[in-house]
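ok new one. same drill as before - structure tokens go in, u give me an amino acid for every spot. 281 of them this time. try not to just spam alanines like last time pls lmao
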């Protein structure tokens, strides 16, 4: 394989990667692919078909316990938080209205759904009070909800705004409940971390984009708007542009605390066991 090539799989191109693409580099050739689900990301990294995934950092807590390589690690955090809204049909006005509901998810045991399960539990809904129905990534969940295949789902920009334009309603916000909720991370296998020079080069470009964004905000806003994103989605991506790529200690501790609260595997993990910041030094 070309030593300059890095294959990345993500749900939506992150804003910091768009900004990093403006800087030419002969050290990295980025090949990206949109994913349908976190399970697809797990398989792609496990098989070596892809080198890195931009994904919920909670996934690492679960992926390292699944049958497989069990050597996944977070090397960077690429947004300050992932704006997530619980969007539902108009009949759902409050969390308690989700008793007996079908909630559309990417995967029921890992990812953003863990924060949602914690939120529902705090609202008094036991795990058997609702159904979690896997339908795939954010684009797939948006379409399934619009098509009436479920009662609610978690959506982020731009799909939350698109859903509201379709007459759906906001039930709750993850950030309102958990202000320290972290953004997505760059997840790789430790073998990739040690042996892929293109990964190091890409992380360096991302860090350069973070340092230089002050003079490029208008350019980034125009780039996002050119993708036909609603203005609210563009604003959300600008507002959550990272000030550092170092994964948030408090954010990851919140993810671990949610697993402990729910009695899920992975609650024994620690920041040190999940994160490697060697590429950020």
């Amino acid at each position: 394989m070309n030593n300059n090539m890095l294959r990345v799989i993500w749900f939506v191109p992150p804003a910091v990667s768009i900004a990093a693409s403006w800087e030419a580099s002969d050290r990295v050739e980025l090949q990206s692919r949109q994913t349908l689900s976190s399970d697809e990301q797990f398989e792609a990294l496990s098989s070596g078909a892809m080198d890195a995934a931009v994904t919920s950092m909670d996934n690492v807590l679960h992926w390292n316990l699944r049958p497989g390589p069990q050597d996944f690690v977070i090397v960077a955090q690429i947004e300050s938080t992932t704006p997530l809204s619980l969007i539902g049909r108009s009949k759902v006005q409050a969390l308690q209205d989700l008793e007996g509901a079908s909630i559309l998810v990417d995967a029921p045991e890992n990812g953003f759904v863990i924060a949602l399960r914690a939120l529902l539990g705090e609202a008094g809904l036991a795990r058997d009070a609702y159904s979690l129905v896997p339908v795939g990534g954010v684009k797939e969940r948006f379409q399934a909800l619009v098509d009436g295949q479920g009662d609610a789902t978690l959506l982020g920009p731009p799909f939350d705004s698109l859903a509201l334009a379709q007459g759906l309603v906001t039930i709750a916000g993850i950030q309102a409940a958990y202000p320290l909720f972290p953004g997505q991370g760059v997840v790789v296998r430790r073998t990739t971390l040690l042996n892929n020079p293109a990964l190091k080069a890409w992380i360096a470009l991302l860090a350069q984009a973070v340092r230089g964004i002050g003079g490029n905000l208008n350019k980034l806003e125009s780039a996002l708007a050119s993708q036909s994103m609603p203005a609210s989605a563009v604003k959300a991506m600008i507002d959550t542009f990272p000030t550092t790529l170092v994964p948030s200690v408090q954010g990851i501790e919140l993810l671990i605390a949610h697993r402990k609260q729910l009695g899920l595997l992975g609650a024994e993990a620690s920041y040190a066991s999940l994160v490697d910041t060697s590429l950020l030094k």
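The mean pLDDT is 95. and btw The CA atoms of residues 182 and 248 lie 7 Å apart.
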